[in-house]
Design a protein that fits this description.
single chain; alpha+beta; Nucleoside Triphosphate Pyrophosphohydrolase; nine-stranded mixed beta sheet; 5 helices; about 20% helix; globular
Amino acid sequence: MNSHRHLDEVGKTNIASECLVIKDEKVLMFKRSETAKKFPGYWIGPGGHIDENEDPMLAAIREIKEEAGVEVGMDSIKLKAIATHYHIDLNETWVSFIFLATLPTHQKVSEENEEGKAKWIPLKELLEMENVFPPSKYYFDHVLNDKPGIMYANIRWQNAQLVEVLSQRVDING
């Protein structure tokens, strides 16, 4: 008998997009407000929930515009990972579509808003920063280095810290 449960039986399921945007060896990151309900104060790639009339790519493009004021075209973005993150402490699963975008020209970010602030961070500095959201940082090597294929992962987290990687593979045909 199989003891595995469906995702919707494990707790709340959230579907989201996140995008790492690169230009001139800098990565566009978004610092979540210190008063945010979930994951306060962490730096993360722009992203968020997918609205009912969107696909994951359109959601990523919209979120980049909303959170950072930066415009990304459909020809500048590609899917790099799909992940299932179970946050034990929240009893929530996040199904995340992780994209990489490269910009042909530099764009300034918008001012800080109630959700947080956006900033272009030099890649070397970003890799050494302490307050990067661990589930986002998990994909940096594959996404920021634009390695071939789409990564698939199923990971458990507790208080935003890695507990267990249940599976991880890369489809090089993706």
